[in-house]
Amino acid sequence: MDLGNIGLFKLMSRKMDWLTQRQEVISQNIANADSPEYKGKDLKPFTFRDALSDNRRLGPTATNASHLSGTVGSGGTAKEQRIRDPYETAPNGNNVVLEDQMMRMSENSMDYQTITNLYKKQVTMIKSAIRSGG
Fold first, then answer.
1. Is 75 helix (H, G, I), strand (E, B) or coil?
2. CA distance linking residue 101 with residue 33, whole number of Å
3. I need a labelling partner for 13 at 20 to 30 A (CA). Which of 68, 92, 116, 133 fits?
4. What is the rounded distance in angstroms from the CA atom of residue 87 to the CA atom of residue 82?
5. CB 112, CB 19: distance < 8 Å
6. Distance in angstroms (rounded) separating the CA atoms of residues 92 and 49
7. Cβ-count burial of 133 within 10 angstroms (0-12 exposed, 13-18 middle, 19+ buried)?
8. Quick one: pLDDT band at residue 28, thresholds 50, 70, 90?
9. How many Cα neighbours within 13 Å face the side chain of 33?
10. Neighbours of 101 (CB within 10 A)
11. Alpha-carbon separation of residue 44 from 29, 47, 72, 89 (angstroms)
């Protein structure tokens, strides 16, 4: 049984990949905290809407002539969240604030741990269902 083919596991894997990439970006920011003219970076936020919009649109299927068609349009565009400028810039042009980066790293770590625990729980539920034969 390949868990990678189940939608929930695909979504969790994509989130974990995003969190791993974000950890790398945060680490680079911290490593270059003293580099002149270095500008801190971050990834575009991972959203549920973006995760599901992988060029496939799921629409309702009318199995009876009296079924109503869906009211959802062809998909609106979500506004991209604007990341505010850092509130500190060093005299050498570096805008990395270590406290901010440490908060992001902690948030990233907690999110990764949450997704890992959710993954484990889902696997445990599947194992339980297989053992009980239901």
1. coil
2. 10
3. 133
4. 15
5. yes
6. 39
7. exposed
8. very high
9. 11
10. 19
11. 15, 9, 26, 22
Please give the Cα distance from 91 to 80 (Å, whole number).
Answer: 30
Under a CB-based contact definition with an 8 Å cutoff, are residues 16 and 115 in contact?
yes
Helices (H), the chain: 7-31, 48-52, 98-132
* Single-letter amino acid, residue 119: Y
Query: How many residues are present in the chain?
Result: 134
Tokens of 9: 């596991």
Please write the tens of the pLDDT for every residue from 35-94: 998 888 888 888 877 777 764 555 556 677 777 765 544 443 333 333 455 567 778 888
Residues in CB range of 13: below 8 A, 6 or more apart = 4
Find where tokens 């894997």 sit: 13
